[in-house]
Amino acid sequence: MTVLVTGVGVVLPGGGRLADLGRTEAGSLEPVDPRSRINRRGLRYKDRATQLAFCAAEEALNDAGLYAPAAEAPVRAEIGIVVSSNFGNLDTVCRVTGTIGAEGTLAASPMDLPNASSNVIASSLAIRFGLAGANLMLCSGATSGLDALSWGRRLITAGRCRQVLVLGTEPDNETVREFTDTPRMLDGAVGVVLEDAGTAAARGAVPRLTLGTACRGGTLADCVAVLAAHGAPARWYPPEAVTADVLDGLFPGATRVDLAQVWGASSGALGVLQCAAAIGWFDGGGAGPVYAVTGGGRDSAAGHVFTAPPGVAR
Amino acid sequence: MSAVIAGAGAVSSVGRSVDDIFTSLCGGRSGVGDLRVFDRTRYRAEHAYEMDDRPPGGPDVPLRTTRWLLAAIEQAARSGGLGDDLEGVPVLVGTGLRELRSVELRHRGAADIGPADLHFGPAVRERFGATEIHTLANACAASLSALALGADLLDAGEADAVVVAGTDMITESMFGLVERVSAVPPDRVRPFDRDRLGAVMGEGACAVVLRRSADARPALGVLRGVGINCDAYHVTAPSPAGMAAAMRQAYQRADRSPTETDLVMLHGTGTMLNDEAEATALTEVFGDRAGRPLMTAIKSMTGHTSGASGLLGLIVALRSLHTGAVPPTLGLENPVPEAAPLRIVTELVEGPSLSTAQINAFGFGGINAVAIVERAR
Asked: What residue stretch is flagged as signal peptide (chain A) (predicted)?
């Protein structure tokens, strides 16, 4: 079964969109105001990661021709969600802990209760967009974004879902910067809609990218070896926080685009960001294949092959 | 689908092994006690189902959630014939609250942990040599959701064996916010009782080994199917329709009918909303046979072990199918009207021949996971 991406949504600082993922410098890093992107109803009391996820999801579902406001449509049990985020609710957890320590539980806000649960992003997306299929929240560290694509594909091949919204998001705030010892986090969200080629063709969806081989390995070298066996890529997206001297010898001849270097530490969002960047590359006439790698430290490693959508002669 | 459950392990407030836990539950022994781990002056609640293995008399220490997980995986892997080397074996960990307790301790200046400690991949890798580890943060449906994904990996031929686990400990933020929305903090979990006051959090970890085909060891049971979905309804309030849809999906994937089910491990958190919604969903799915299967809610003794609870229920179900003993539901004196058609046991039941069990797990955000297992033949 061939699984395709048929919709993509990108929400990045400075209003960055899909086409901007080819850039080598980010330019403006003005934080996105979700209220300027989507209907502000339902944004109140949602954490930053969830608000960003709402924006990217609406764009991705629209792009796939699957958007329907939940208030106006019945829930759709055949569409699932896989979200990857490692730090989405860290600020809520630390803030509430601080409040309780200082003033006791009566000083805490009941509106924080859903946000204290790590799955709040995935389930909030389901509610806002009426998507009642399998609903997964991955917090697996550096490999989590590419893993999310693989689990999304498996939900389709296992017959659990007809389409799956796969979304990566990480917020930028003081709590996360301090915890990760990172000067700047992504503060963005990226969503893609997956479906099998037959389903896409039957409903006339426009394919944007084909998901190729995915792999997991103990080390970066393990994943690079698996990907290299598929031939040389046109370009590749490396993991973040790996030094250039380690990366320089890998995939000789292929252009390396370090998305985290441009857009900020992306953690659980990186793999989905890499997939979106590959779509931007194919949109611009780029020829594939494109490889993505995440992890490589204590988290082991993940790799993925992305190829041009079917029907595109390149 | 069908996968063999080849090994199991568990630690909780009522025992540090599967056998100990099952003995405690059948004996009606609850793990509830005084709240010890937090500064009591900050809380109205006075009780929890803690696994208090902190240094005696000392403050809380980080990474206990991870330690419990490793203990449960070790028990499961050894009893499932995998030993301590899990190289090449995918490990799927379901959790509601990850290592957020350690993040809280760090926030207070009481722990030195980093981003790689927040999920469980690095620790599992360093202990067992596994390289494919996933942390699935699916709230209180987490470990059964992970079970669904593990079963799918076997079905697709991507692995011959997988370890599925669940682990959770009480965080201050969740414990405090649950208390914040309670009129009167409950002193224990009283599932399906009219006078229940809500959930009390518990702690524990558990794991199973799933295999595509039976090895030489006697199997603990057979996993027939897992249904997973989302209500897409409300962030904290459950929907009976969504729960019922997850149950039907589980039976469809198991190629079984609810009429064949002998035992239901209830989610039964003792919250106002869950118990009525769960009872309504069961009555709808089982129809005029709702009174046939035995049902029990072990959270009345383990507390709400969050993401670990579904798989813990499954492990207990396998022991019940094997022995014919079904642990009681404590504290259930006057059932809510919705539960009137159901046969929830309040005393230990011994002796019946039980073949098939359904296990429920429902989480915040309306995520549902339901598993169907059978006795090993």
From this structure: none
What residue of B is the nearest CA neighbor of A121?
B365
Nearest Cα residue in chain A from B156: A158
Check whether B176 has a pLDDT greater than 70. yes
What does DSSP assign to residue B40? G
Per residue in B275-293, pLDDT (tens digit) is 999 999 999 999 999 999 9
Task: Could you please state the CATH topology (level 3) that the domain comprising A3-202 is classified under.
Answer: Peroxisomal Thiolase; Chain A, domain 1 (3.40.47)
Contact B283, B347 (CB under 8 A): no
Question: Which CATH code is given to the segment(s) B3-375?
Answer: 3.40.47.10
Q: In B151-213, at which residue ranges do the beta strands (DSSP E only) sit?
A: 161-168, 204-211
Residue A314: per-residue pLDDT: 46
Give chain A positions within 8 Å (CB) of B363. 117, 119
Per-residue pLDDT of A132-163, as tens digits, reads 999 999 999 999 999 999 999 999 999 999 99
Catalytic annotation present for B206: no
- How far is residue A262's CA from residue A270's CA, in Å, rounded to a whole number? 12
CA-based nearest distance A314→chain B, Å: 31
Residues 120-149 of B with CB under 8 A from A: 121-122, 125-126, 131-139, 142, 145, 148-149
B155 touches chain A (CB under 8 A): yes
Domain residue spans of chain A: 3-202, 211-307
Of B228, B238, B232, which is closest to residue B268 (Cα–Cα)? B238
B residues 211-250 closer than 8 Å to A (CB): 228-236, 242, 245
Q: What is the ipTM of this complex?
A: 0.98
Nearest residue, CB atoms, B364 vs list A123, A138, A297: A123
Give the whole-angstrom CA distance, residue A294 versus residue A248: 16
- Digit-coded pLDDT (tens) for B132-154: 999 999 999 999 999 999 999 99
3-state percent helix, strand, coil for chain B, nearest multiple of 5 = 35, 20, 40
